[in-house]
Structures are given as C-alpha cells and as structure tokens.
Amino acid sequence: MKILHLDTSINGDASASRRISAEAVRRLLSQHPEAEVIRRDLAEAPLPHLTLAEFASGESQAALAEFKAADVVVIGTGMYNFTIPTQLKAWIDRILIAGQTFRYSEAGVEGLAGGKRVIVALARGGYYPEGSPMAPLEHAETYLRAVFAFIGIDTVEIVAADGTALPPARDESISRAEERAASLAA
Ligand SMILES: Cc1cc2nc3c(=O)[nH]c(=O)nc-3n(C[C@H](O)[C@H](O)[C@H](O)COP(=O)(O)O)c2cc1C
Question: Domain of 13?
C-alpha cells in the first residue's frame, strides 16, 4: 500500500493541519505497517504556478505519477481566504489532467482516479456550519470534495479542526480532530 502524505501549512510546528495529517498517517501505519509513505511538503518545496513550460516539466509529471500510484492520499491544509492555499491549488493543477485522471467521453466527464482513499486534515480559523450565514463562504471543503469527485473519488474523508484562530476553542478543536484522525477506519 502506498500513502501519499501532503502538507501545505506555512505555520511549521504551530500548524493544526500538520498535526492532524500526521496523526492520520500514524493511524494508517498502525493498521498497515507495510505501507510506504511518500512525502510531499508543498510549503517547504512549493510547486510553481502552472505555465506552459511547467505543464510538461519533470516535476509536474512526478507529482502526477505520485498521485496515480498512491492508494491513500492524506492532505493537511488550512483554509486561506475561504478556500485552499495556493500551494495546494498548484498541486491540483498537476493532478487534474485530461486523459490521465479524467476524460471527456460522449457520456460526459468520466473520472479515472477512482478507488483511491482521500483523507483531508483541514484547519479553519473560523466556523462555517451548514445553514449559517458563513456557510456560503466555505470553498475549501466543498472545493476539495468537488475536485476529487470530478476525477472519480466520491468519498473524501474530512477531519476538520474549526475555530483554530479563536484561542479559547483552538486547543480543544485540534485535540478532537487529532482523536478523530487517530480512530480513522482501517
Ligand atoms: C493567509 C491566511 C488566510 C486565512 N484565511 C482564512 C479564512 O478565510 N477563513 C478562516 O476561517 N480562516 C482563515 N485563516 C486561518 C487559518 O485557516 C487557520 O489559522 C488554520 O489553522 C491554518 O492551518 P494551519 O494551522 O495548519 O496552518 C487564514 C490564515 C492565513 C494565514
């Protein structure tokens, strides 16, 4: 089994999403000790914005190959300006590739990346509960679910810590998300 572990947070050791994604990977390894972990830190080694030259670059192809080879993808990310950080968007620009992870057919769009498990460790500074006035601003979880559904991955497991920018809620919210990550299904 191959686990692709991505992180995007610029906050280093103070990052909530890094703590949660690490816990999810620990959990997976406790269930599958033989698993190989492929690590990509998109904050330490960001992929450049996409250009025509970048599109065909070895680095872009390596990112796509890593994704295609993975059985499980664990993504640690915060919400930035109501959506995902640009580092993660640059990675998505490398993996949503026509003919590789989806194709257009007479029947419409067909996802070609089905069968992978995707776990997202998501940290949000505020709260975006369904039905609340903030809910329409939530474009991180909704975007990631849509992106992976587009390429054939209908189930994305989101382990979220909310309110991380609010000191009284922060620690408890992160601890609860870590506990959920530590008890993810095998
Ligand atoms: C540039 C930037 C933009 C942010 N924008 C939002 C936002 O739109 N909504 C929100 O709830 N939190 C926002 N936050 C707070 C982060 O989502 C929160 O700090 C989260 O814990 C970051 O993930 P990390 O702890 O893994 O770094 C923002 C933080 C940064 C640094």
Answer: 2-182
CA neighbours closer than 13 Å in the CB half-sphere of residue 2: 13
**Ligand 1 touching residue 152 (CB < 6 A):** no
Query: Is the CB of 8 within 6 Å of ligand 1?
Result: no
Under 8 Å between Cβ of 29 and 39: no
pLDDT tens string 16-39:
999 999 999 999 999 999 999 999
User: For the chain, how many structural domains are there in total?
Assistant: 1
Q: Is 165 in the pocket of ligand 1 (CB under 6 A)?
A: yes
Amino acid occupying residue 49: H
Q: What is the pLDDT of residues 68-104, one digit of tens each?
A: 999 999 999 999 999 999 999 999 999 999 999 999 9
What is the CATH number for 166?
3.40.50.360
User: What is the Å distance from ligand 1's center to 77 Cα?
Assistant: 9
- Report CA 31 to chain centroid distance, whole Å: 21
* Residue 50 DSSP code: P
Give the residue, by CA position, lying nearest to ligand 1 atom 31.
80
Q: Which atom of ligand 1 is nearest to the CA of 82?
A: 8
